[in-house]
Amino acid sequence: MTLSKAVRIGVDVGGTNTDAVAIDVALAAQGDAQRGVIAFKKTPTTPDATAGIETAVRAVIESGSIVPQRIASITVGTTHFINAVVERDARRLQKVGVLRLSRSFLREVPPFSDFPPDLAAIIKGYCGIIDGGLHIDGSQEAPIKEAQVVAECEKIKAENLKAVVIAGVFSPIDEVFKQESRVKDIILREIPGIDVVCSHEVANIGFLERENASILNAAILQYARKTMRRFNQAKKKLNLTCPLFITQNDGTTLDATAAARIPIKTFASGATNSMRGAAYLAGIDAGGNSSAIVVDIGGTTADIGVILPSGLPRQASAYVTVAGVRVNYSMPHLHSVGLGGGSLVRSVDGKVKVGPESVGHYLVEEALVFGGNTCTASDIAVSLGRAGMGDKSRLSGLEPEFVQSAKACIKTLLDGAVDVIKTSADPLPVLLVGGGAVLAPEDISGASKVILPPFHDVANAIGAAISRVSGDVDIVQSTAHQTESQALERAKTMAVERAIQAGAIPESITMANVESIPLQYVSHQVRTIVKAVGDVDFRGYVSELELDAADDDDEASDEPEGRKNRAVKTTEDIPVDPFTYTPTIKVSDEGVPEWMLNETDLAWLADGCYVLGCAGGGTPAPSFIQLRDILRKGHTIRIVDQSSLKDDALIYWGGHMGSPAVSVERLQSTETVEAFNVLMEYLGHKSIDAVMGLEIGGANGMEPMLVGSSRFFNAPVIDGDWMGRAYPTYWQTTLAVHKPLELVPCAIDSGDGKSIIMTRAPDDEIVDRALRASCSEMGSRVGMAAKPTTTENVRRYGVLNTCSLAWRIGRCIARSVYSNQLSTVAESIVEEAGGLKSARVLFRGKIVEVERRLYKGHSHGALRIEAFDDQDDGESERMTPVVSGGTLRIPFKNENIFAEHTTADGSETKIIASVPDLIAVLDNGSGKALGVPEFKYGYRVTVLGITCSPQWTRTASGIEIGGPKAFGYDDVVYKPLGEYVEPLACANDQDLHTYPRSEVQEKSQQVAMMGEMFTEAIGVISWLGPARDDDSNLVMYLMRFDITPEPDSRELEALLSLFYWRRVWIIQELYLAKSYVIWCGHESISDTKFERSPANLNCHNDTFSNDFSQSPANQHSMGRLFRSIEINSLHRWISVYYKRFKESFKVDYSKIPRDVFLELLCQRDLSTWRRGEENRWLQLAERMKLDIDEDLRRPKSERVNIRDVGG
């Protein structure tokens, strides 16, 4: 490049300031100490950002005495387009039509399914689907039919839409048929002038996320063109003829024409520009061998990212969220902490705390150095001599100890943030940029050196100026006729060609990213991802916006935009309070309690299923969307307890088999439903009585809810499955453990017309192997229906109540998010899973290494987690993990296999948990589970262990099939983590009706009074549920009781409600009430008072036993639910009661309604009672020879008084 074209101008338009710099690349190449920076300017961002750009660029041209002919380019980083989406600015967004290409799939999860309602209300237009789509091997699912496209065009024209998205299954790998491009040509012929966005040009594999990105892109196309025209007009006013570029999210550039075509690729360029600029200023922008960490400190937050040896930022994981929409295009991986120049500094409980609260842009008014009354991080920097703003004399009142403590706190925040973002355990250079960079200490833990480069406060504009261009390839290739290496070389060649097409100098091109990923369960297919980057060849650019020259004369383009239009108001569900929410339980005509699912239940089930998946099973997110939409269309999904099943019930079960790489393109479909239909036709079954899941872990945990919904078979879903977790193979089930050869006949269906029935097999393992081989030939994704099973098999061999457990785990996560207590979400899950005797926190640490390889279709590898020093405020409430310090290694084969701990000095290694026990890895930032695809360096995690069902451990066969040896670890001996506690069934569990502990504690004074009065009581007649005259004969009977308060209870009269006398309230914990911990039934506590009192019960008639035995309401079996655990579960009280008195009632106890029961303190497990009390309580229980039948037949004067018995 000659000196006449050596100057590059970079501009970054921020929310507060617009920064511009001029860089002479010739000077920089000569080793200039200023890195070629010859001028810079920081100006306030104006409402008309174009005017601000013009002002800033004019200022640098004048201050640098730059001749316009020497300017090679102007590169702008802008938040224009993302702001339009984030702010829901309806004047800048247009409605979008969506046309999907697939003959058999994509119908279950419609477009805009996971868009925020207010955004969808602005941009959602017509949605259609036609034949088309590809299979994962590149073959056509169906060819394009022109007549269908033409028919859709008529519908799009009728909606008067100006933009349409074309999205086909596996379109990014469509190199032969070019279906999206063909449909685009037809649409442009039928509707000239319409904007058409092909999804394969916007993003890569991952249909829903690619479609979402394409929709957002189409919505802002018109505004993008207008913005580019205005930028071009500003350039012309400056008499510049150089090309105009816009920075992309990945650190490279687009010319203005391309940016107007794919504006979404510029959404997150601001942070990228800062990172690129920092690396350039520090002289480590490209060509090095190591990465560097960039810390960009602003007024409120600090953003930390990693610059790779390529000079480009490390990208985030495959999926990111923009404006509430999940997308999958390149975005920088950033970690943010609440530290900035305006961060508040104060003393909290004797400790100095910095941030996350901030005075923001009011710094010059609020900070002490400017005469304000708020101590900020900037004040600390001035006090320490690191900054020269304001009047330092105003800080004389700050104690030196306070300043030093604040300094230490800032260091701790940055130490932790750098540790989270690091890409290796080795020390790395840390580069400081941004206006708040002066806050950072001279040394940061984990940093090889800390660099504060010159011009650090305009690094974002510098990053824009020095941006390069790229060519990207993300394709699936066959390795049947080429090696994996050859496939990779082909992808590299394609990337280089695309970089040259984007304007790169060929000899400057290097590979910035190269990945080769074999696909699970797919034969001879590999996904190759390559990015090639190079310097811009400015000689190829003359005036790239000449094609829009006609638009420059459009008077409307120069008119100021009108007042900002917000999104139309939409009706959204009120956020659910997870502490008070209770599921909907309805009693069927047959007297069966049925759990009727709603959207809240589905969301919690999805989160819980992923935890129980033990890193496998696939994400349930698409299943949630599919099931949610089913409910929104008026269908129902119901779950029942196994106790409600008839002895001769016909029970079908199954789920998905195949590659997750296929499901991310086809989305959720109805393959499993079709497999059920195929098997039912073969076996001659017209209907089914119930549905059960193959595995509760991952996406398959939600599949029976689809099959059993009223949209399809309208059959109840059994609360249970055959694994209690996720396993990689179909034959690793408790049914195969205890009753082999029960898997066939079975059927699989591809969802597009192909099905196979397997009628017999010599063993269970060959069934799985044969089906997987067929699956590969059927598109690598099928639904499966297994041989129908029986009620006896479910009860004897199933892992029961796992849907309920998943729901409860999801509720734990929701409660932790709702109450901002993510630090203790693992502890909550432990409690729900049965407490410390059943579940444990195994380890806490940071992922420092992930190994992955593919073998026989399964994702094998190992995860290594290193302990870290966590300064979390909630640490005091955490459980002590099984092991601390050192490292934890977790090998996986789709699911986690075992957890092996090594001490810090390496002197001792031991296995602390293994399959079949459950090992889950929770992300500390969200409280949710991480699956194998999400395992990534830097995540701070908590490892959780849960004891498996005894269905796996009570026989040698179970350990053989589900233990470490099944995964090839013959030297690993399974040792149970604890004692299994069967989850409580939501359909039968009245204990769900509880108030949060905090609300009960607020009433500690009343609880103490009640405790004193109730401690001596042995039992109380209690009634669950709302009082309705038509509930049953039993309810009518109870309402005829006279309830007389005891003299001792006069002090509680103010606590009694007016309608108290029509009910007998639930007393769950008579004993524990004295220790101020009482969990009360939902109806038993009002907002201000307890509505209970001790009482004598006097009956007006002698028909108790007849009414009791004949009541039809809520009849169900309670026998299986008996267990001796702590008293604080109402369900266990019920169990104890029925176990103790089933003989006394002289009726079939399985038909006793749950409306009423007699609570007795005859608990076998007295471990929760105070020392010295056990004998007294046992003696009282023994003395109480109360036969209910007899007692209620005696004359009223001779009946036993509960208070007397207690005394």
Describe this structure in words.
It is a single chain. The protein has 1207 residues and is α+β, with helices and mostly antiparallel strands. It folds into seven domains: 200 residues, Nucleotidyltransferase, domain 5, CATH 3.30.420.40; 126 residues, Rossmann fold, CATH 3.40.50; 160 residues, Nucleotidyltransferase, domain 5 (2-Layer Sandwich), CATH 3.30.420; 67 residues; 220 residues, CV3147-like fold (3-Layer(aba) Sandwich), CATH 3.40.1610.10; 149 residues, no CATH class; 218 residues, no CATH class. It is 29% helix and 21% strand. Strands 23, 24, 25, 26, 27, 28, 29, 30, 31 and 32 form a ten-stranded mixed β-sheet that branches. The longest helix has 22 residues. The protein is globular.
Shape: globular
CATH superfamily of the largest domain: CV3147-like domain
The radius of gyration computed from the alpha-carbon positions, rounded to a whole number of angstroms, is: 34 Å
Q: Structural class of the secondary elements?
A: alpha+beta
Short description:
The protein has 37 helices and 44 strands. With 1207 residues, the protein is of the alpha+beta class. It comes from Gibberella subglutinans (Fusarium subglutinans).
Identify the notable features of this structure and list them briefly.
Hydantoinase_A, single chain, 1207 residues, 37 helices, 29% helix, Nucleotidyltransferase, domain 5, Rossmann fold, D-amino acid hydantoin hydrolase (Hydantoinase), ten-stranded mixed sheet
